[in-house]
């Protein structure tokens, strides 16, 4: 990692991973856009970084490509696992809610809702 001196932007390791000092932007955030081939200026603007901050991030990535790429792959894998977990959990929850009968006294509301849905489906 780059050492901290004279309040210059550096790359530091935090609990979030390799991070641009003075920000919450990780190198993995930058890598998402680099791998999608977005231009440097767009990435800088997107994350509201200074020229010095984007320069230090890009030079660190280039100088330590193998290390950063390996960590980036781990981050992508973890994100995929988390997304799959929550998609499955939400699917199960939605199925349970859909299977529940309407609350007593709301049958008329549900009937009206079904009528409106049928009407909209015919119009579409």
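Sequence proposed for the structure above (124 residues):
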């Amino acid at each position: 990692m780059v050492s901290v001196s004279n309040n210059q932007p550096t790359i530091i390791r935090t609990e979030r991973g390799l991070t641009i000092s003075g920000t919450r932007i990780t190198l993995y955030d930058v890598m998402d856009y680099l791998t999608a081939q977005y231009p440097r200026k767009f990435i800088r603007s997107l994350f509201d970084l200074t020229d010095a901050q984007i320069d230090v991030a890009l030079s660190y990535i280039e100088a330590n490509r193998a290390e950063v790429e390996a960590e980036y792959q781990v981050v992508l894998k973890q994100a995929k696992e988390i997304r799959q977990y929550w998609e499955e959990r939400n699917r199960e929850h939605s199925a349970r809610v859909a299977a529940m009968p309407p609350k007593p006294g709301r049958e008329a509301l549900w009937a009206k809702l079904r009528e409106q849905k049928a009407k909209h489906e015919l119009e579409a």
